[in-house]
Amino acid sequence: MAVLQVFFRCNKRGDGVAAKSSQADKYDCLRLENQLCFPLYACAKEIVRQYKSQLAGLDLTYTQYIAMMVLWEHKSVTVSELGNKLYLDSGTLTPLLKKLEQKGFVTRCRCQEDERSVCVKITEAGEELKEKALEVPGKMCSCVGLSDEEKMCLERILKKIMGRF
Amino acid sequence: MAVLQVFFRCNKRGDGVAAKSSQADKYDCLRLENQLCFPLYACAKEIVRQYKSQLAGLDLTYTQYIAMMVLWEHKSVTVSELGNKLYLDSGTLTPLLKKLEQKGFVTRCRCQEDERSVCVKITEAGEELKEKALEVPGKMCSCVGLSDEEKMCLERILKKIMGRF
DNA sequence: TAAAATTAAATTGTGTACAATCTTTATGTA
DNA sequence: TACATAAAGATTGTACACAATTTAATTTTA
User: Fold this and answer.
1) Contact B85, A32 (CB under 8 A)
2) Cα–Cα distance between A13 and A57 in angstroms, integer?
3) Which tens digits make up the pLDDT trace of B49-76?
4) Which CATH number applies to B34-162?
5) CA–CA dist B118, B49 (Å, integer)
6) Among A64, A79, B14, B159, which is least packed, fewest CB within 10 Å?
7) Residue A111 CA distance to nucleotide D25 C1' (Å)
8) pTM of the full structure
9) What are the structural domain ranges in chain A?
10) A91 CB-to-strand C distance under 7 Å
């Protein structure tokens, strides 16, 4: 029973005992409002939506933006290195990088040392985009509106979860 | 400057002052590791991936599962009611509900009172699925591995963010 | 060294997500 | 009542996201 309770929100009475009068309590763990993962999923989607408006002026989607972040820092990475940093595979990255190449922000070519790998390099236009991007984190932060303490707490918990996978 | 700092992780020295020796500090706010939204995005995806293996036996995707949760509780809802609860629009829900109908878990038909609306109703097979789903929340919880305190904290912060949108 | 195994991308197919548009039905108002 | 407006879904188009497969290059090993 304890293992089923873990995803419940706090029992209102705090005693962990289901009320005898309600026959539906067995299914409480399946109520949307008792899920913890659902607000996580909904929140992540909402934040990507907020990024969309912030990033419109840069001609980037959110996924393209985080890929550019890696390139702003590292200048040149292989597709698999990028995938390891972003938790994305080639099925997502290949078409995404082709779009960034079309926009002129990156170049793609097979590595000389290992022809299996593709090197993605940032272009001059990609570097220039970095200046325009400088205002994005601040705008997103005020949009999300957490205190420093809440941000630290959220980061700690999210990284704990990620550490298990 | 303060507004740009908000999405940084804690300054290692704790004084909020950028080191003079590093010329790249201006761009620290654009480093992937200093983002709070990225672990949120990555974590949400990872959890959906974990659900996928838990839900394989139910023949449900994660999005189909949360739609079924609403139906397990309410038996019958319109598409727009479902969309309000799940933060999804008809462009996502229409094809999803057609799939759930094909699997025999729901029926879809125009409401008599208002022909603009579509009523989605759970079927007998959909109700039976509820029994199989009972074990999912517990498995997901142990998979995520947070303490009760961490879960409450995470839920509080996520709902604070959602409350702004 | 030749064959087997591994690795890296690309490709294919399915399923979300969501903005924008379209169609149908219902509602409000002159 | 006619007409404008609004509301509800469906449709269209773009962009992920990822499992599974394929292709090519590299490494391992018998």
Assistant:
1) yes
2) 50
3) 999 999 999 999 999 999 999 999 999 9
4) 1.10.10.10
5) 30
6) B14
7) 11
8) 0.88
9) 34-162
10) yes
